[in-house]
Amino acid sequence: MLTISQLKLERTTKKNMTRCHVLGLKELERKNLPKDFPSKLRKESFRYFKGLVSCSPRNKKHIAHLVVFDNSKPYGRRRVWLRCNCEYFKFKCEYVLDRRGSTTRKYAIRKPPTVTNPRGIPYICKHLYMLILLVRSRV
Fold first, then answer.
1. If exposure means fewest CB atoms within 10 Å of the residue's CB, which of 18, 97, 106, 107 is most exposed?
2. Cβ distance 105 to 83 under 8 Å?
3. DSSP 48-67
4. Whole-number Å distance between alpha carbons of 72 and 59
5. CA gap 56, 58 in Å, rounded
6. Taking the domains of the chain in order of start, what are their residue ranges?
């Protein structure tokens, strides 16, 4: 499983962050976790956040999930499980993060992203990045 500091944001994505904002953020209980959240991780200590994030001029909203483990460690060294329902996450991030244990594949196909992410870099989308920044101030 990856830590927060191991996650990468693509340079081109950083340029498009000016219009991003989190419309809503909730800290939820264990019973509200996605159904496909790994059962072996349910036993650990964690905090679960779900946010509604908008970054487009058409005001399209995306749902981002963030589960932060290891509450005693510094924020950057905490392990995470994450998911977003945007296209970028689906086609560029989800397969790679699933292979490293930081998400459960829901949207992506079973083949590596040889066109969109051939080197297998653990990228995250701008929606998750915004959520991570906001949660950092609360954890």
1. 18
2. no
3. EEEEEEE-STT--EEEEEEE
4. 37
5. 5
6. 4-85+127-136
